[in-house]
Amino acid sequence: MTPSITLIGLGPAGAQLLTREAWDWLSQAGEVYLRTSLHPCAAELPETLAVHSFDALYEKHDALADVLEDIAQTVLTLGRREQGVSYAVPGSPWVAEESCARVLELAKEAGLPTRVINGMSFLEPVCAALGIDPSNQLALIDALQLAEQNVPTFPPSCGALIHQIGTRRDASEVKLTLMSAYPDDYPVRLVHAAGTAQQSVEDLPLFAIDQSPRLGLLSTLYVPPREHGRAFEDLQEIIARLRAPDGCPWDREQTHLSLRPYLLQESYEVLEALDHENPDELREELGDLLLQILLHAQVATEAEDFNMTDVIQAISAKLIRRHPHVFGEVRVSSVDNVLQNWEKIKAKEREDNGKSQKTGMLDGIPLALPALTQADQIQRRAKRVGFDWNSIEPVLAKVREELGELESAGTSAERQAEAGDLLFAAVNLIRWLDIDPETALRECNLRFRRRFAYIKAEAAKAGKQVDELSFEEMDALWEAAKTAIIARSEE
């Protein structure tokens, strides 16, 4: 009789799978608090035991985290009593039992003695029912937590056991998350009541898991691993293998500097795929670009400068830090409001890094960017701090003004300067129309290529070279090309 907390694992099924230690404790405890009474063992506990449960808390709270916190705080309070408290959970207190982890954390902070009486987890009977070895790259995932994610929290080349998938609603939300990384008809398995006489294994496609009539408290979803090469980690391993001493001679000799032209080339090929609006081409080009990023990360890893996890951690932290309206409590009313906050956050970052006096708002724009994109980025950043006109009329007037100044320029140097001013003003106008200038010019270049190819083809039909045509003939064919190309695109 002393203030303390005893955590007991009830095992995965009925009392036949309780440990002797757990049964002996429950036989003399007097009372026990169950996380849930909806467990096969609950009805088979010693008759002398007063049984309470926290089932009502699942109805009281909307979020599972709130339920578990309420349970943990209540168990802590009960543990402070003279007789202490016994808290029993399905399976093992050490496996997939967040409430136990939280109770142990709170008890340690309060200096309250604890004891853990372990039990068989749900893993053993589930893996036995599936005939799989859990040590062979198997992830253990809570269904309620997975349902809150937009993408799975484990690599698809790794198998996964998803527990607490007890209702159709849970299963529906889980399948939507999984479908971001798996085909809708991907074969999965539902294990029901593992370790009991009612045990069954149900094979079905992923899209149908919420249609299973057997879903319940003792249901677990098994997602088999996809083929090798589907996970980010698989690609990392391939790159590391290419750079290994017995890898590819070409890959091994590459450095950050030698890889620069390939990074630029692959970036432009992604842009070209976007211009073509071809998903298959875009998928391939994004892979080529990702290859370059991973090569740079591997080179840095070998030099012990940083590794890929450092890259991911840094960008993850930056995205969360710069989106307090998504991951924090900040309220925004418009895109402009978001951009203004973004610039303030970046300024604070520069100050925290001791760069506020050395770098400014425009210093983060790479000089290697195409000139049109640079101009657009400069103007957009200036707008974030309010340096912009309030309407488009003065923007149009500025373009006309710069065109006039170019016409009246007297020297070559003046013409070059005024030409730059005209282009800068034109980019500003395009920005006001919410158009990306680089994309607009790239599309214009493509249109010119297609129309000029039409002129060349028509000249060939007439037995002529393009340079044998008069300007008037080429102009007429140019107009014809516009009509012909439009007609083709509409077919």
What does this structure look like?
- There is one protein chain.
- The protein has helices at residues 20-29, 55-60, 64-79, 98-110, 123-130, 143-147, 168-178, 232-243, 249-252, 260-276, 279-302, 308-321, 324-327, 335-352, 371-384, 393-408, 412-432, 437-461, 471-490; strands spanning 5-9, 31-34, 50-53, 85-89, 114-117, 138-142, 159-163, 187-192, 200-205, 219-223.
- With 491 residues, it is α/β, with parallel strands linked by helices.
- Strands 3-2-4-1-5 form a five-stranded parallel beta sheet, with helices on both faces. A five-stranded mixed beta sheet has the order 6-7-10-8-9.
- The protein is elongated and about 105 Å long.
- The N and C termini lie far apart (86 Å).
